[in-house]
UniProtKB/TrEMBL annotation:
Bilayer-crossing regions: 261-283
Domain of life: Bacteria
Listed name of the protein: Alpha/beta hydrolase family protein
Alphabetized UniProt keyword annotations: Membrane, Transmembrane, Transmembrane helix
Organism lineage string: Bacteria, Bacillati, Actinomycetota, Actinomycetes, Pseudonocardiales
Length: 292
């Protein structure tokens, strides 16, 4: 009896402990307030390997996917014009909100954000992916390149050679060197890190970072443009924006009008065959039942 009493007390204590310990909420990043209300209504969410929930916006549809990743000092809205243009070109585009800097306990694994976004595109029918971004987003893409499903190409705007802090360890040079897909690497000649903590990068001249990243790639085109623009600011230039769109079209062509119709026809034929098979099965069962 004494043993049973002790066991009973342990069980009661365990249930009491569970009831008083608060449930720890999963880390979550919110869409920035710059996102218009009409887009918020259609926002999606997905989770990273380490359990961080990220919001995103999807434009367009189809098998040719494009992933857009902003940097720490930008907003998701800085990439919306390009996202819309790429969707008009026939691509399915996912632009997402990177994990917040406040999630220190989960490490700022921006590479895991990229992989989760790529997996989301894959689940939505994108059999090929072009990944693009700026700053830490671009660096994370290059770092994770070898693990992105169906990767066809990358465009990296002002990437860092590496981005290393106590909670992040990204290596664009090593990552881009491990894949053979075509890459477009862009930076401005006079762009430098002028203020703030620069301990996370080896060099404050960002054009040199771009040269190092492009130099490590087996198939990269380097564009060093005049001025000091960086990250998404670079594609404010219409000519450069068109180069990015052309790069995406060339590396992952969207289905043509004829191909889309053929896919619809094939899908319709498959559904018709399934219907015919189902009807035949039902008729045979009825015939068999009537014989009995």
């Amino acid at each position: 009896m004494a043993l049973r009493s002790v066991l009973g007390a342990v069980v009661v204590a365990a249930f009491t402990l569970v009831s008083v310990v608060p449930v720890v909420a999963q880390p979550k990043t919110e869409l920035h307030k710059c996102v218009p209300a009409d887009l918020r209504e259609d926002a999606i969410t997905f989770k990273t390997e380490d359990g961080v929930e990220l919001p995103g916006l999807v434009f367009g549809s189809g098998s040719s996917g494009v992933l857009l990743a902003h940097t720490q000092t930008e907003f998701i809205c800085d990439w919306l014009p390009l996202a819309r243009q790429l969707a008009e070109d026939g691509h399915q585009v996912l632009v997402y909100e990177m994990r917040t800097l406040l999630l220190r306990e989960n490490r700022n694994r921006y590479d895991l954000d990229v992989l989760a976004a790529a997996a989301e595109l894959d689940s939505r029918g994108a059999s090929s992916i072009v990944a693009g971004g700026g700053g830490t987003g671009a660096t994370a893409i290059a770092t994770a390149a070898g693990k992105i499903p169906g990767l066809k190409g990358m465009f990296l705007l002002t990437p860092f050679k590496a981005f290393q802090t106590s909670s992040s360890d990204l290596d664009a040079v090593g990552g881009i060197g491990a894949v053979e897909v075509p890459s477009l690497v862009v930076a401005a000649q006079d762009d430098v890190i002028e203020s703030g903590d620069t301990s996370y990068v080896e060099d404050t001249r960002l054009a040199d970072h771009a040269r190092a990243v492009a130099g490590a790639a087996s198939n990269a085109k380097l564009e060093i443009v005049p001025g000091k623009a960086h990250f998404a600011e670079l594609i404010d230039d219409a000519a450069l924006s068109e180069k990015v769109r052309a790069f995406v079209r060339e590396t992952s062509p969207p289905p043509t009008f004829l191909e889309r119709w053929l896919m619809l026809i094939v899908g319709g034929v498959v559904l018709l065959l399934l219907f015919v098979v189902a009807v035949v099965v039902v008729l045979r069962r009825r015939a068999h039942s009537s014989v009995k």
